[in-house]
Design a protein that fits this description.
This protein has about 350 residues and is of the alpha/beta class. It is built from 11 helices and 6 strands. GO terms for molecular function: ATP binding; kinase activity.
Length: about 350
């Protein structure tokens, strides 16, 4: 057993001493009408903003659980950013997965309202979790944050590079992992539409506005259209201001990345994809004449940067020791992933 691996007794002690008291601090007694909310969204979406909105709606604040927060309870979490062995991440992932399962079980068995946030890359398992809570007397809700792929993908890259610049723990979500989670949001909407275990289905737009909200009690067909509403919100055209801001953020992130030679290959691949997205999707949405000097200058800069990135791609991939947590799927796991 490595120094990163926790003995079951140590992991359980941390759960009882630190995790449960902090996670469930706002709910000390069983509730008469407890609720479970699954808040889904690919990495880079504004899930934290949605959490605040849902808490306000709930009245009594539910316990909020996400894999990112649970990582910090590992006694060696602070050293993860400088760890050189893959087993360090593996050990933290296993401990986090166990604490996630324990929090889910604790909430269900003790009638505590819970808001569970993540990517939910196994929609069937996620809805299965809702079914188990429904059987235990909980009101269940699935809320999905709709963010355009271009925006969440850029947020992923910007957050990683900002943490690198600041010397903080930098966890890179690859383009492939991001896109799997993006597709999973659509699969979850379809799964929830047809599930009798989901009492309420909500789609939250990129600005925090609710673009779809229905309760099963209002009729058997009320959830129809949720998946279409999600896809529509994920495909919404950017305003000229938002498109300009997006391009500015991409160029600033790329400028910093080009000064570093120690970044994983996946970072360059992510930036290459984002420049391709800029040329295919974002620049054409600037609401300006195609022959305008502004558009031409932006295109030329983006094409030049794309060429620089393609030429700079390293031959060897650097192992990223801080990839996203994936919680195993199982009887009490809920299919939660980050």
């Amino acid at each position: 057993m490595t120094s990163w691996e926790l003995e079951p007794s140590e992991r359980d002690a941390i759960l009882a001493r630190d995790v449960l008291p902090l996670v469930f601090q706002s709910s000390t007694h069983a509730e008469e009408s407890p609720s479970l909310t699954l808040l889904a969204g690919q990495p880079g979406t504004a899930r934290q903003r949605a959490i605040r909105t849902l808490i306000v709606e709930h009245g009594q604040a539910p316990a909020v659980v996400g894999a990112d927060d649970l990582r910090a309870f590992h006694p060696r979490f602070a050293a993860l950013s400088v760890a050189s062995a893959p087993e360090s991440l593996d050990a933290v992932t296993r401990a986090t997965a166990a604490w996630m399962r324990d929090c889910i079980r604790y909430a269900r068995e003790n009638q505590r309202s819970l808001l569970l946030e993540g990517a939910f890359q196994n929609p069937t398992a996620a809805v299965g979790t809702a079914a188990r809570f429904a059987a235990a007397g909980f009101q269940t809700r699935v809320a999905i944050v709709a963010s355009r792929r271009a925006e969440s993908l850029l947020s992923v890259a910007s957050l990683y590079l900002s943490n690198v610049r600041a010397g903080n723990l930098a966890r890179l979500v690859s383009r492939e992992a991001h896109d799997r989670a993006f597709e999973a949001t659509r699969d979850l909407a379809v799964e929830a539409e047809g599930s009798s275990a989901v009492d309420q289905l909500t789609v939250i737009g990129r600005n925090g506005d609710v673009v779809f909200d229905a309760r099963r009690a209002d009729g058997d067909e009320v959830f129809r259209g949720a998946a279409a509403a999600l896809e529509g919100a994920q495909s919404a055209r950017l305003s000229r201001f938002d498109a300009t801001q997006w391009l500015s953020e991409l160029h600033h992130a790329t400028d910093f990345a080009m000064t570093r030679r120690d970044l994983p290959r996946a970072v360059t691949e992510l930036l290459v994809e984002l420049h391709d997205v800029a040329l295919r999707e974002v620049i054409p949405e600037l609401y300006a004449p195609s022959d305008g000097k502004f558009i031409s200058a932006i295109e030329q800069k983006t094409v030049a940067r794309l060429g620089d990135l393609q030429r700079s791609q390293p031959l060897e991939e650097v192992v990223d020791l801080a990839a996203p947590v994936v919680v195993p799927v199982g009887p009490e796991r809920g299919g939660v992933s980050r």
